[in-house]
Design goal:
The structure is a homotetramer.
Chain A (H helix, E strand, L loop, with lengths): L3 H4 L3 H17 L7 H8 L3 H7 L3 H22 L8 H18 L1 H12 L9 H22 L9 H22 L4 H7 L8 H17 L4
Helix pairs in contact in A: 2-3, 2-7, 5-7, 6-7, 6-11, 8-9
Chain D binds a DNA duplex through helix 1 and helix 4.
DNA sequence: CATGAATGAGGCTTCATTCAT
DNA sequence: TATGAATGAAGCCTCATTCAT
């Protein structure tokens, strides 16, 4: 979505722009985010911004793509898809995903905000698309689990992947509630460090997986 | 939150205003919703609107209260809290909740939008408050279930209620995905009728409950 | 300026309205003062206010008249015009005037604000009129002093009365600066009590009179 | 306070805007002055104005600074501080100040209006600040006069400078009263020319100084 | 005589985008 | 390629006043 001009920019300048835009779009929803603010913070002219990106939407979608790519890369770099049993695999996916979110709160928040953009016509259902993508990602593993008789077959695979997918989206919310911090704090502080010991994160995930595997009942 | 002036209005006029505002706030997030639009549709002057409500926020919170009240009333009228076993009770709650959402899509969408207002400082964390309230509502039943040894005690009750609570928020999303309609359609058409047979709704819920009760595993 | 209706009101109600209006007009200049606010605080309907007074200006001028009258009464009650020598008389006038201002800050502030209304066409030069009135009041005494050879005759009597008159308008400002309080504080606290010992007020006035009588020079 | 954008404008355009704003703020108090009016007269779009200045206050403070600077420059260019005896110096200061006011009525009126802004919280006590500055300016000379035994030491130097300072603020008022013109006339006509012979101005000032030096008494 | 609902003009401000240089 | 000045629609909100009941 960005012009060649943008891609030819020095990395430093490009990053400054991305950083400024990321900040704005992670702290505001699409409509409330302001291009004016972004160019001010990035210290570039408005004309330049519109030479790099056709319009607000284009910039937004580019950032979103960047964030998605970054997250996917992080996950695929930190997980060994094949090695494990299904429930362990799912646990690891969530663990790695959560670690990405917590150490890249701006990117993560951007994606969350996009998922919340349910009413904005201008963005052609970006929210639905993102959710669908996530649902389908998990669906592969669910189906495989069912084929291997590790996951019960009397339940709709779409339902199961929907559940897993949605809960991957609120996991951080639970963690932050339990450990008393907010995304906003993480974003404002700057990032990089886990706000809780990894062991604790794993404990929570273990419980999550137990629920999904065995259910609530005694 | 509304002034006496508003409450003294003829019911017809009051409803026209509520309807117009509801429409705007269910189709747009808080910032994007426009008072100008609302007064145009309600066919009143801007000055009047501001004699009814102190400001945009006040109108919004009033609508939200209205919606919450309406939903709670609907649920308490359609459910017999005491009569049932825990998992049946939860199933019924969700069934009734879903029925409300599907037959009152504007009110429902308003609440959903409020839950998505995670970035708007002006609304003093309305999203968190709503979620917290829902979490605590379910927590009571979870704790009771644990006391009665119907729900396992080795899992954090907050985690379990968090899961149930969040699930109640996305249930309709799954239903609409499965039955190929969208909230927007329901809102635009006008309301009242379930867009799918109640039996089907129950079937879906039965599966959901099975998952929560027994888990994914074979 | 008020209607008979207003004058026939119970004293209590009338005072409530006056008090509310006084508050608004002492804390805001004419344009910024809001009838809406006044009726809200006075707890009467807008319709009533417009039955008591033709319009904003009419209410304002009424209050101003009230304040002027009150101040003049206070002064004439607390001073024995004839008994004294000219400079003593002037000193006493200022002392009494200052005491009125400090114990009736709302009325006083209203008058000060009116004197500051130099740009508002709507008020037909109320500021000039008030100043002129004050100038002429002092002019009588200056002329008499000159006739009696107590005040030098080589200086324009208008200039001298102008100086005395303007000084009377800023006296409180100096006092409040010297004694570290503000009109706003007095108004907000409620009134009645001198914020400094009367002796101190007299000391300041003694100096002032010395200046006017004998000048700066050694 | 203005943006670079504004400073980069052609002098012609910049002056047109300043002129329009000056007009509005000299003829109206802060609250009553209208940005809408200004942009209409200056023939620019509202959006442009807000690219030049952050907000109304910023524009206002810029004009005020401009006016203060212009007046100070005028005074320092037309007076030889060192050469004179104290009372002569004070007379000259007032003469030069009065000449500035009469030949730059818009700037002068703007400052006077600012001094009258006693009730507006938004302007953070601009009135007090301006007065204090003036008081302190004169205080230096009063203190020096006292050190050199030209001004009596039995009177509070703050009181003396307060008096001189306040009377510098009303001098023009007396002149215009005596010579039958108004600021408004000067502003509306355009400026530049003294509305009375300089000799006459000097005569008035001579009397003023006599009062301050020698007092009223025979 | 009291009420209070209705009004619409006008207030300040922000916005995404364009285009001549 | 970069710039930054220009725009005008739209945002929320306040106001003094009127008039039917």
């Amino acid at each position: 979505m960005p012009s060649k001009t943008f891609l030819n920019l020095s990395e430093e300048k490009r990053n400054k722009i991305i950083e400024a835009a990321l900040n704005e779009f992670s702290l505001n929803d699409y409509n409330s985010a302001s291009i004016n603010n972004i160019v001010k913070v990035a210290d570039i002219s408005k004309g330049s911004m519109y030479q790099y990106f056709d319009n607000k939407k284009s910039l937004y979608l580019y950032l979103l793509e960047l964030a998605s790519e970054k997250k996917l890369n992080y996950i695929s770099e930190n997980i060994d898809i094949k090695s494990d049993k299904i429930f362990n695999l799912i646990k690891k996916m969530h663990l790695v995903g959560a670690k990405f979110d917590l150490t890249n709160p701006k990117y993560s928040m951007l994606i969350i905000n996009a998922i919340n953009e349910t009413t904005n016509d201008e963005l052609d259902n970006i929210s639905s698309k993102l959710k669908e993508k996530s649902d389908q990602f998990f669906n592969k593993y669910i189906q495989e689990g069912q084929r291997n008789n590790l996951i019960r077959n009397d339940l709709d695979d779409e339902l199961l992947s929907f559940l897993i997918s949605r809960f991957s989206m609120v996991l951080i919310e639970y963690v932050s509630k339990k450990y008393n911090f907010t995304y906003l704090d993480l974003i404002k502080k700057g990032e990089n460090k886990l706000p809780l010991p990894e062991k604790e994160l794993e404990k929570i995930l273990k419980q999550f997986i137990t629920v999904f595997k065995d259910g609530f009942k005694v």
